[in-house]
Write a structure and sequence with these properties.
Length: 65
Amino acid sequence: MPGIVLKVLVKAGDSVTKGAPLVILEAMKMEHQIVAPRDGVVKAIHCVEGELVQPGVELITLNDE
């Protein structure tokens, strides 16, 4: 389902661990945390706060540490 990006919690270059929150989305009037699937470094952010995003779209790119 489509959602609105409420908050981007990381910036490019940040180190993250598996399960760390990256983005908060609102979909169907509920907030959903998008978390890191693995340890890594944020390479790129492909969304901005307030943007409507579609399912399956990459929001954050992670590199291996």
